Amino acid sequence: MSTTTPASPKRSSGHTKLKQHGPTTWSTAYTRTVADGPAKFLLLSDVHFDSVKCDRDRLKRHLDEAVAKDAAVFCFGDWFDLMQGMYDPRRSYSGLRPEYKSITYLDDVIEDSIEFLQPYADRWLFMGRGNHETNIEKRLSTSPIDRLCQGMGGIVSPGSYSGWIKIQMTRYENASFVPMLMHFHHGYGGNAPRSKGVLNVDLDQKEWPDADVIVSGHTHQKWHVPMTVERIGQHMALREETVHHVKLGSYKMLDRFAGWEVEKGFAQPRLGGWWMDVKLNRVMINRKETVKPITTFTEAH
C-alpha cells in the first residue's frame, strides 16, 4: 500500500490516449484557442519510485501541480528502481523500503505504483522504458511497465526506450494541425561529471535533425540547451528555428553514506522534471505570416 496520500482526482480537459503509429512512434492532438492558453506538459524521467531515496513529497507536489494546471504527464524511463531483486548484483537490503520486504517484492512495488498514480491516470499519457525496467525484462521475463500501465487504466501508453512523439496543435475544430516533433531517448553513456553530458547536444542534433525537442534522462543531470538551426521549406525558403535539448533530471536523492553513486563520485542531482508549454503564435517568415508552435520550458523544482 502506498505510504503517500494521493491527490483528489480531477477531470482533465482535452487529454486523449496517444495514437501509436509504430513500435516507437506516437502522436496526440490539441485544440487550444487563444483564451485556452498553451497546452501544458510535465516531463519526467528517473523517478525511481520504489527507492528509499526517491523524493516522493516533491514528486507528489509536481503531480498535484499538473492537476491544477491541467498538464499532461510523460515519463521517459526509470519510473521504477527495482534493484533489490535476487538476480540484481546491485541489490542492498538497506536500500529496500520496509513495505517491500516480502516474497512478492516485484508485485508489491508495481501495485504500490498503481495506487499512487491512480489519481493522475486521466492525464498520464506516456510511460517509457528505462534501463531499470529493461533489466527486469531481461532477468525475470516480465515487463513492469506493461503491468503498471494495465493496472493504471486511464489513457497511459506503455512506451519504448527511444522514439518519437508528435504533438499536433490547432486553434479551431476541423482546422489544419501544426505539428511539434519531440524525440525521446531514455539516455546512454556515463555521468559526465564535468560536462554534464552537454557535449552530446551536437551529436543528438545530427542524429535527429527533424526534432523540435530532444529529451533524455538516465544520467540524472538536468539542463536545457536551446539551439538555433537553419531549415529549408518545400519552396526553398530558408528559416531559423529553435531546437530544445533537455536533460530531464531525477527524483532520486544521492546517498552520501555508501553505495554505487557515491563510490563512483556522482554529484548531488538537481531534483525534479520540466514543465513544457506549447502554444501557437503567428510569426513572419520571409515576409509571410504563418502559424507555428512556440515551446517554452520551466524547471519543476
What characteristics describe this protein?
disordered N terminus, alpha/beta, Purple Acid Phosphatase, chain A, domain 2, 6-stranded mixed beta sheet, globular, 7-stranded mixed beta sheet, 301 residues
CATH topology: Purple Acid Phosphatase, chain A, domain 2
Overall CATH class = Alpha Beta
CATH architecture: 4-Layer Sandwich
Which ranges are low-confidence, i.e. pLDDT below 50, for 5 or more consecutive residues?
A: 1-12
pLDDT average, as an integer?
89
| Percentage of residues assigned to helices | 10-25%
Strand tally is 13
Biggest sheet strand line-up: 1-2-7-8-9-11-10
Strand content: 25-35%
Shape: globular
Helix/sheet category: alpha/beta
Main sheet summary: 7 strands, mixed
Intertermini distance: 27 Å
Number of helices: 6
What would you report as the Rg, rounded to the nearest angstrom? 20 Å
**How many distinct domains?**
1
Q: What is the H/E order? A: EEEHEHEHHEEEHEEEHEE
